[in-house]
Amino acid sequence: MSELRFDGRVVIVSGAGGGLGKAYSLFFASRGAKVVVNDLGSGLKGDGASASAADLVVDEIKKTGGQAVADYHNVLEGEKIVETAMKAFGRVDIVINNAGILRDRAFKSMSDKDWDDVLNVHLHGSYKITKAAWPIMRKQKFGRIIMTSSAAGIYGNFGQSNYAAAKQALVGFSNSLAYEGHKYNITSNAIAPLAASRMTATVMPQEILDSLKPELIAPLVGYLTHETTKQSGGLYEIGAGTITAHRWQGTEGVVFKADASFTPAAVKERFGDITNFD
């Protein structure tokens, strides 16, 4: 098979200082793309900042003959990240919304700050970068967007109500952009990756992490963002070389009479039929 390349394309990767973001950056650069390596350099919980994480990835790309620039802005300053891309390369073709933090707490112990900080990075940060890139993509009649969801967003997870809420919100966000971007050749897809990272290292044993290389997520992201791919509005769970496509499914349903007979007791009587997926 011929290699899918990205010569001339400009890619923004948020949270690109390590893990998945670094893997994406190296992948795109190796296939001819110019990469904006965005990373605030904060800790797993979003604390602190350091330029070194992004700089190291840029240096690695340049050593192999690739083109990349570092960006150190918070994702909530998405317009500045896009500005970095425009100043350096003059366009934005692909946005990989990858940055994230964790504030795991049981809901009874979760503070407003735990909730707000996680939604700010995952959801609002993805919005800010995408919002700034959107008019550029519309004007050039080309754009590819990836939202990073999670199994926690699809299924829920104990102690991650904030994270799960943000991750499922990104699916709805992506689906809506798929509709709005269609006539401008802009696609948007969501992925739910399972890969070794600072975040998964807090909840998984090492023997599992060893099989979940971040590099094994990049092929799907590469396919979904290639100029020949028109697929949009999808949700894909991926990890350890396995990809699963997701869809919403409803039962056949039950029709009740729209009169006084439609009561909670009537619903109880037919609830087995309502929930029967056979």
From TrEMBL:
Domain of life from the UniProt record: Eukaryota
Coiled-coil regions listed: none
PANTHER family, sorted: DEHYDROGENASES, SHORT CHAIN, SCP2 DOMAIN-CONTAINING PROTEIN
Protein name, UniProt field: Ketoreductase domain-containing protein
GO cellular component: peroxisome
Keyword line: Fatty acid metabolism, Lipid metabolism, NADP, Oxidoreductase, Peroxisome
Domain Ketoreductase stretches: 9-202
Classification of source organism: Eukaryota, Fungi, Fungi incertae sedis, Zoopagomycota, Kickxellomycotina
UniProt record similarity statement: Belongs to the short-chain dehydrogenases/reductases (SDR) family.
GO biological process, one term: fatty acid metabolic process
Molecular functions (GO terms): oxidoreductase activity
InterPro entries per the UniProt record, alphabetical: KR_dom, NAD(P)-bd_dom_sf, Peroxisomal_Beta-Oxidation, Sc_DH/Rdtase_CS, SDR_fam
Protein location: Peroxisome
Keyword Iron-sulfur: no
Pathway note: Lipid metabolism; fatty acid beta-oxidation
